[in-house]
Amino acid sequence: MSNQKHVLLCGNWKMNFGPKETQAFLEKLEWNKKSNAQMRIYVPYVSLTTAQNTLEKRGLLGRDTVSIGAQNVHYEKSGAFTGEISALMLTEVGIRHTLVGHSERRQYFNETNETVLKRTVHSLEQGLEVLLCIGETLNERNSNQTESVLTTQLAAILDHATCQAHFGDALHLAYEPVWAIGTGVVATPSQAEQAHSFIREMLHTKLGSEKALKTRILYGGSVSPQNFKDLLACPNIDGGLVGGASLKLDSWHALWNLI
Known about the structure:
By secondary structure, the protein is α/β, with parallel strands linked by helices. Helix content is about 40%, strand content about 15%. It has one domain (about 5-255): TIM Barrel. It starts with 6 loop residues before the first strand and ends with a helix. The model has no long low-confidence stretch (mean pLDDT about 95).
């Protein structure tokens, strides 16, 4: 990346914080604008409207301030899909961002590369911005399969015309080594940069230098105020997808202030 790196700090609240806790957290959120950074928080479905309303009342809701996203989205507009939420439902309540393919969706809910592609394409077609998650398990890393796993997870995405058109604009990536999520174990800056550099080269080869440079690649996996600065100093790491540390105001503020 160039020296004009535009950092994206994302919090993934996972299955935490209903509407009351969401309101309490966002009412206390300390905001200091940074010209080179954006903040985004992915909250549970039931808390989306509360999050939007709380930030709007504080004058903090917007693309260049704080934006709210969903943690998942279905690949059909409507239908007999009990328990699912469509992109149209999200946009109706003002949501413009979603995660797709988080490792926990893959691990616990049978998400596959095929359904990740379908969710990504449909979300982009319906006007959502997508943060697509990829990454290897511990067994895959230990057997030197990291690059092959990343290649497989991105292959169909890089080949699809809709995705190609939106990389660097409405489609960005998060590299999350599964072995580092919620474990307290974080990839070293060298390990993370190696993976990010490999992903960037894949983008460059398939899409050209402009889209490769514009596409933000975030690191996710036990990000904390203690390691974020070193991770962010890596040339190809453009921000963080933060789990546990995004649920505590002090650590969340500390991460933002490191940018």
